[in-house]
Design a protein that fits this description.
Layout: H1 2-7, H2 11-31, H3 41-51, H4 56-61, H5 68-88, H6 99-111, H7 117-126, H8 133-142, H9 156-162, E1 167-176, E2 182-190, E3 195-202, H10 207-223, E4 230-232, H11 241-246
Parallel strand pairs: 1-4
Antiparallel strand pairs: 1-2, 2-3
């Protein structure tokens, strides 16, 4: 409303009023040099919005109770708060878990007492249900079920220590050759002795090649009179059923 009234006045009226306001501002700043410290947030927002309509060079020549840099900082703060409110609108907090997902989690835990929240999370992923492990942990806690029950049998670390002498692990890793090509190297480690065997390297680990490396490994183990009871490997597609059949 003040802008509408000001637009209807004669130019010399505006000039006279501006000069009077400037002089009053000078007197006020002389009496209270830190008057800007008492500005409220609406005061800052109004001054910043008005300053945003003026050219930068013109803004630097106006007598203000704050510096032009302060007005620009207030203006940036207004824009930041505006976009922060929009980004938070309707997306506060983690979305709630569906009731049917909670029911499945609780059912899996009660029908499989030895399963922990990690195992249940893996089973849910196999069913196509995407939830975080921490969400499964919280659902079990809310239902009064231990997220990590103690199993009657030995743990994984205890099992590895007790069976290390009869355990063999295989895996692929990649290596870059001097000519710039990449090859896949099949390696095996004997857990008992920590001995690493490099079985072979190829640019294309097809099934026939991997199976042949398994046969060669078995012959080497027999020559060294090494007994193996457990063979471990990941779910790499190169480790096919034919590969497992060799062992």
């Amino acid at each position: 409303m003040s802008l509408l009234r000001l637009s209807r006045r004669e130019d010399w009226w505006k000039d006279a009023e501006i000069l009077m306001l400037r002089h009053q501002l000078a007197v006020a700043l002389r009496e209270r040099p830190r008057a800007a410290a008492g500005l409220t947030w609406p005061d800052r927002a109004w001054l910043a919005l008005l300053a945003g309509t003026l050219p930068i060079d013109r803004l630097g020549r106006i007598r203000l109770i704050v510096t032009p840099a302060t007005l620009l900082r207030w203006h940036r703060d207004i824009v930041r708060r505006r976009w922060a409110r929009r980004s938070r609108r309707g997306r506060s907090g983690r979305p709630p878990v569906r009731r049917d997902v909670r029911s499945v989690v609780v059912r899996l835990a009660r029908e499989n007492e030895s399963w922990g929240y990690r195992r249940i999370h893996g089973e849910l992923a196999g069913l196509g249900i995407a939830v975080a492990p921490s969400t499964v942990w919280q659902i079990l806690r809310d239902a009064g079920i231990s997220p990590a029950p103690r199993r009657a049998g030995p743990g994984w670390a205890e099992f590895l220590r007790s069976q290390a002498q009869a355990m063999l692990a295989l895996d692929f890793f990649t290596a870059d050759l001097l000519n710039g090509t990449k090859v896949y190297v099949l390696a095996a480690i004997e857990h008992g002795t920590r001995r690493i065997r490099i079985l072979g390297a190829t640019g294309h680990p097809i099934q026939s090649w991997v199976v042949q490396q398994a046969r060669n490994l078995l012959m080497d183990l027999e020559d060294a009179k090494t007994s193996v009871k457990f063979v471990l490997h990941d779910r790499d597609a190169s480790f096919t059923t034919a590969f497992d059949a060799v062992f």
